[in-house]
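User: Before I run my own analysis I want an independent prediction to cross-check against. Here's the chain; please return only the structure tokens and, at the end, one sentence I can use as a sanity check.
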Amino acid sequence: MPFGFGRKAFTVNINSIELYRSKYVCFLIFILLLGRRLFHRYFFA
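Assistant: Structure tokens:
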């Protein structure tokens, strides 16, 4: 396997990990906000 190909694949892998992490963080924040709203509705109503 050529060195250049390995480095390119490694760069693409890093980019996909960054994209996945940003999606996961946005999803986690959304779940926290939604969960807090539901929590207040059911426990402090």
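Sanity check: The mean pLDDT is 77.
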